[in-house]
Amino acid sequence: MAAKKETYSQAMKRLETIVRQIDNNEFEIDELAGKLKEANEIIAFCSEKLTKVDTEVEKLLHEKRVSE
Question: Tens digit of pLDDT for each residue in 2-58?
């Protein structure tokens, strides 16, 4: 699971590492399921971060339009 203080960039680096390792067949079959689960958790974490930032940006843009 993504660490509480982990940044988006850190999470993406971890995800890229996992994907590269999967592509290079670096995991045993027993280990692969756990890594896929971890990758899914990182994707969810990153998606949540992006959604939150998108919402904040939209709010700021709306506030700017209203104040003009």
Answer: 556 899 999 999 999 999 999 999 999 989 999 999 999 999 999 999 999 999 999
- Asked if the structure places residue 45 within a domain, the reply is yes
In a domain, 17, yes or no: yes
**Counted domains in the chain:** 1
Q: How many CB atoms lie within 10 A of CB 64?
A: 9
Buried b (16+ CB within 10 A) or exposed e, 32-59: eeebeeebeebeebbeebeeeeeeeeee
> Whole-model pTM?
0.80
Q: Which residue type, as a one-letter code, is found at position 41?
A: E
